[in-house]
Amino acid sequence: MSAEHSPDVPHTDDVVDDRIDVALVRRLVAEQFPRWAHLPVRPVEAGGWDNRTFHLGEEMSVRLPSGAGYAPQVAKEQRWLPVLAPRLPVEIPTPLAYGRPGDGYPYPWSVYRWIDGRTARGERINDLTRFATDLAAFLRALRAVDTTDGPAPGLHSAWRGGPLSTYDAETRAAIDAHRERLPADTVTGIWQAALDATWAGTPVWFHGDVAFGNLLVRDGRLASVIDFGCSGVGDPACDTVIAWTLLHGPSRAVFHDALGLDEATWARGRGWALWKALITLDDQDPAKAADARHVLGELLAEHSVAR
């Protein structure tokens, strides 16, 4: 199954990305928040896929869902980010205004306070082990937040925080489709081990998309965690995926130890990493396809050492 038909990606006819541009944002802001109508609007360096983000002046950003599947995340972030923020050790987005559908754009949208920083690519991080320690401290603090009335896993979280079996058929189809390029039996074994490591723990807060694009650094250190669109209350295994996408060697070991999660949770985390890598292996974006190959290589190398 291709990424376009994954349960966490809207169908093509739901996507309004070609209508999301600077002119639309200017019109929406002028109509709904005229006090900001004089401020310049410009695209950000990396606009994202689930949402499109724009600068609004120097101190704010506007974020618009790119399709129907992402629209429920707006209300969730508006409701819960102010609750989470004071309990976390690094900065997270601050909602400033709640936009309504308008001017032909069919979904709610948000205005946030702008956060300075650059996405956490390896060359921008001064000390990857320290980065891993800081990120683990953030995730531990997130898991410690009271879960009362928190959102259970569902479509809004792309089923992150829920059972991996949601993606079983898609993952096995991807393994079969790439059988000529992958050691299919080994990859299937990693996936099956993840499925077998069932979760029966107490639900905790999870971020849901701990990817380098959602981690911002300043002066080489973790400064902010953004994009809580896939967050919720459930199994935290999905938040370990960064161990194979960005971390390696000592930094991965430090992250593992600092998180304090059991080995079954790590097995499920490998499953989440494997699923995403398999469905993006043939992505039309060369960078995403290269990232997928890297993750598969890391998982297979780790499996080889563990045997």
Q: What this model shows, in words?
A:
The structure is a single chain. Helix 8 packs antiparallel against helix 9. The protein has helices at 22-32, 72-84, 128-143, 168-177, 184-196, 242-245, 249-259, 263-279, 286-306; strands spanning 41-43, 51-56, 60-65, 95-99, 109-113, 118-119, 204-206, 215-218, 221-225, 232-234. It has 2 domains: 3-113, Phosphorylase Kinase, domain 1 (2-Layer Sandwich), CATH 3.30.200; 118-306, Aminoglycoside 3'-phosphotransferase, Chain: A, domain 2 (Alpha-Beta Complex), CATH 3.90.1200. It is 38% helix and 14% strand. The protein has a 5-stranded antiparallel beta sheet, with helices on both faces. By secondary structure, it is of the alpha+beta class. The chain has 9 helices and 10 strands.
Give a short overview.
With 307 residues, the protein is α+β, with helices and mostly antiparallel strands. The protein contains 9 helices and 10 strands.
Helicity, in percent? 25-40%
Which strand order do you get reading across the main beta sheet? Answer: 1-2-3-5-4
Cα shape: globular
Q: Could you say which structural class the secondary elements and strand pairing correspond to? A: alpha+beta
Which CATH class of the largest domain? Alpha Beta
Task: Provide a count of the helices.
Answer: 9
Order of helices and strands: HEEEHEEEHHHEEEEHHHH
**CATH fold-level label of the largest domain:** Aminoglycoside 3'-phosphotransferase, Chain: A, domain 2
Question: What fraction of residues sit in β-strands?
Answer: 5-15%
